[in-house]
């Protein structure tokens, strides 16, 4: 605080223009004038330290201020001299000086002498040591005048003294004393150590030592030995008179009082003495003071003690003696400089390695790997010539840990960096293959990525040494590429809808930052700007490939291919890495400068010389199938990308050139052509190469003898050829539609018709039918069966595509077509279906849905690098193997679906397929399953969904015409309801078809015929007859069945937002190739429809007109048609809950109740409509049945809600506003108030919304659940009990207004006031107070109810039974409490 005063007027204030010299001059003038300063620097006293104000006393107390005055500030300024020349600064005052304690009787002179540090004071305190008992020794007489000069050579020959390292002079003196027979000086500390042989034990077992172990007796005079012994004997006598517990207590006190460093010092000194005393051993302090516990004998040779924290059962390596000169592989010579002294600690590494420790512990240990990536057991003793031992922390263990490999990869030696990267590549390959699942704990891949593996690989790619760079490429390929995944995708490529695939993107994207919340739209960052702001680490942590792209890995790979031109193995690794990146982000590869141009010119040349060897030294200038596969994967990303590849990069010329290449390159060329044809592109090549394609197709059925087996590549070539012809046929089928659209466009933009017409593909059908007949004939040949089963799906898919497009052509002749179909079915399909090989394949059909592939030990997958996990298929090859039942069954039922749509009269001929035990068992296993959706399961689940859809399509056509099939109609409908919420993105067309044809089909409700609805109504009456709606359940079900067509229209209307996805999916499934935009499916984010889709109209109406964020705001009138939509939704829910309960098994009961409550929240009077009332009553009773009520959990937040309490608060507000005492709405409000649920909802009713009790008039007979659920167990919330009592006393809760909660409050209060349980004092006081207040109530009816309540009875008019008079125990308690109160009042009076 500054205190301003009047300054001298003669002195002027400094000006801003004054220089430093002017300021100094003015300062000197002011100091010389002696004037008073304008301000004083003062210091505020520290009240916490008890500082007092200055004791001047001249100023009154009220004028004192909290000021701080610097009293030691000198009047003269210090001289401006350098710090070296300046006088030393004054010492700082101690902050603790004032806190020191001073006694009144303390002599100041003694205090000064005590703290006097002058040399005279120090010398005056020197006390001469008693030397009376020290023997005097005369100096040794010598014949020389001077002592002999000590030479270095003689000093080096002397051995080391036990005392440790000493100087040459000290060692010479010690040797001379030993030679003369003199001991150590008396100045050396001595510790008397008892000898084991001479020690005796007393009766209690404690060792009796002849002297003290710690006290030497120095300085005690001539009788020091006797005094030391007397002290020791006194200590021993005290120890003998103490019990074991007293000794332990004293030991703990002693250890607590002593400095821990002093204790450690004493123990270390004793251990040193014990180690240097030979056979004699120094006991630990615990053993020295322990009484009554005999010491166990110790082996004389035990030198290594197991650590206290070592696991029991682990064998420690024995300590080896120090290395000797004889143990060295090369003995040092005297002439070697600085090699004449042996340093054992530096030569330990030359010893033989100790044996590995044998551990029987279950503790986790660090994993070590060999150069092939295999885990080395810690107990395995491997020879050293394998090169797996190194000078690490555990040299006796073979192998390298991940940390050591990371360290080795940054070595300056090229060989070590290459070795580390190659070993990491092997580890990554085995981790991706799932080799470590049962041997290692945790994820190897996740650990490596967290440690910065991708940064290590990216740095290594920039290495100037080609071997290191090649090893880095190999490791990058092992990290990104899964050969099993690529193999499965290639196998499924010719399957039905096999070209479509999900992009391998991480499904759990990181949440966006919320830094721009509250900013204007113009100030918010775009998604691209946010992405640029992220660091490489942040991007790679969420998406590994995106992180690599951000680190410009594509530019580096292009440099390697273009400039380095590495070996064939590295080229293939680079191409496989590019393929994996293309499945993630194809546009990044196409946009990388010169990358695709390099691939096209170097590895897909238009002309090349045939290689002279099977393994050429270089792949440059030769066709590489991996490069063609890269083009195919890129083309699958979209029709524009495919057009760019065909036209800009020269892919069209390569297609025609590669048809004459080797089978491997030819297969990939045909696949690329098939992808282009799926967009309606490159079809002009079909007309140019028609003869070549037909010859290749005819050669596919060439008979093969056992000596000439058909290679797998040939099978793949035939499959790719049939897939190409299938896509060309689809494109030709669209020619007529596009041609008509072009003629009718009248100048508007329209798609051009493809260059191939329908007449150009009709000649393929007879050839394929002939090949199919030949396949059926060869099925019985065991040598040809595998080949035939592999090719059969492709033939069936082609015929299905041909006949699906045939009916759309103007040249379609129905009579001729029907005759062809009958011939095809009789001659080909029926023999095929009845063939034992096909039957056996169908019997192997196993549901991936109910037996997920994730059950098997899977590969090491991380969320930032998704994979298909196809390594599991090695344990179950029937899923995606060569003879997979999914491929054959999907193709067969696809053809049957097309044929039966053209000729309905042929449908019954295939009923045996659906009635087979294998198909029925397969369908039953799918009902009630809940598959998990991920990249590891979606790729195979998509094909199973398609198979189930085709099965249901055939069953839908057979149910009306076949009585045996109709018996299983309920099963087919359950499968359809289960399949609908399973369908993944890209299958929206299948969902639309299911909703349009099967889901709302009345023929699939066999329960609706006869007395089914009435039987359901009777069973419901048996459960709860009191709360049955007036109209009954049977009529509601029958009415709902009759309204199924309108219900279907309602749901299709509410799903209209999926129309673009449905159209895109339809183009893919129907083969509308000119309209198809991409073969990549939408990003995998979950099923297309939610599991609670039947509640969709209610949820949509609530979102549009309902409550915002559960705050209970009143809404206006509902939109037009909302009443009808709600009624139709409730009708469908009633049908599903009554007869298809398993269809909604994935939706928790709490979520069902929350969604049904939207009936009350979406409008002010919608729930009062009679149809809504009846249907909601029926559903509410179904959801609160005895079995469902047990599973109802309101503590877990329902999906889509933060908590159920928020929804309940909205319900309370809405009830207070618009309920009009509706019983149905009241039952919804009463349901969460049951005793088993949280007390917060009961507190909300009796605390915040107590006014609701006036209109909550649900009678005991209308209550759909037992009253005991509200009254048992007794309430333990004291605030709630007080609210109960207040509501009853104030009249807010009356039996005539709210009979249910009146019974609840009375029951809980009665149980509380008469409870005999031991409770805390606060609760007991509240219990006595409530009982006392109850006794003095003026309302006799309420008083009798609270005191005489007995048990709840729902059929009783009161709702409970009562005692005629208080039981003796209760009367005694009431008398004691009320009597004490009256007695206290009398005493006060």
From TrEMBL:
Q: Where is this region: Disordered?
A: 1-109, 175-209, 267-333
Task: List each copy of the RPAP1 C-terminal domain by range.
Answer: 366-431
- What InterPro entries would the database entry show? RPAP1/Rba50, RPAP1_C, RPAP1_N, TPR_RPAP1/MINIYO-like
Give any single GO term for biological process: transcription by RNA polymerase II
Q: Where is the composition biased (Basic and acidic residues)?
A: 15-28, 179-189, 323-333
Q: Where is the composition biased (Low complexity)?
A: 76-87, 197-209
List the biased-composition ranges (Acidic residues).
297-315
Q: Where would I find the RPAP1/MINIYO-like TPR repeats domain in this sequence?
A: 1094-1319
Return the Polar residues bias intervals: 273-287
RPAP1 N-terminal domain span: 230-273
Q: Which UniProt keywords apply?
A: Nucleus, Transcription
Question: Could you tell me where this protein is found in the cell?
Answer: Nucleus
Provide the family line.
Belongs to the RPAP1 family.
* Record protein name field: RNA polymerase II associated protein 1
UniProt organism field: Astyanax mexicanus
